[in-house]
Amino acid sequence: MFKVADKELSSRLFIGTALYPSPEIMQKAILASGAQVVTVSLRRQAPGTKGGAQFWDLVKGLNLNLLPNTAGCRTAKEAVTTAHMARELFGTKWIKLEVIGDDYTLQPDPFGLVEAARQLITDGFEVFPYATDDLIVAQRLVDAGCRIIMPWAAPIGSGQGLTDVRALTQLRARLPETTLIVDAGLGRPSHAAQVMEMGYDGVLLNSAVALATEPVGMAKAFALAVESGRQGYLSGLMQERDIASPSTPTVGTPFWHRKVEGSKAES
Description:
By secondary structure, the protein is of the alpha/beta class. The protein has helices spanning 23-33, 42-45, 53-61, 76-90, 110-122, 135-144, 165-174, 189-197, 207-210, 215-235, 255-266; strands at residues 2-4, 7-9, 13-16, 37-41, 65-69, 94-97, 126-131, 148-151, 179-183, 202-205. The strands form 2 sheets. Strands 5-4-3-10-9-8-7-6 form an 8-stranded parallel β-sheet. The termini are far apart. The model has no long low-confidence stretch (mean pLDDT 89).
């Protein structure tokens, strides 16, 4: 089991609800992924005014844990206000905190992010901050009271995969007690497996599944990749070597032949 904040989950894959060809395909893909947490955007769907009624009916029908986000917010104040609205509408203290600082890369504003996180934690929220892979920002968020950090692998929707493996490796090593869920930039199942092999606690996907030719099949592929990567991490990955090392110590000599020769020599 996988513990996130105050909930026990069996899946380490979180999934988004945007960009799918249709609400029906979205529902099928989410179910195929096995995810137990789905993200929803308050600002884009406007449930309070019954915007996207079919969408909300489908999401609620999944009976999964909702993780509302503050997508589209560009100031700490705006993000805090949106988070309070989400808590009232969805009845959850979980919030995926986004404070965007750049319109081109959609890179988070680190100052606004820490400011908003500090306020929301004071207000009783469980904050899932979307951040870059910057170690200092992550430490400031932990100091503010965040138990979960969601660093990006690459800019949102880029599908580039892990653009800075060293930074993500360092982040994992320096924050061993913090739940780290990679959010944004993963484009292939192999990217998700790589993240999980590094010891990350989970991944959050949206574009890679929703924009696939077959979203349902891609959701299944990512589910398998996350499980495979986690198992690889737990099993202990082989360390890389600078030189070749043959699996058969004496090249060209079968292991059973060497054992027989050894026995004769000893006798």
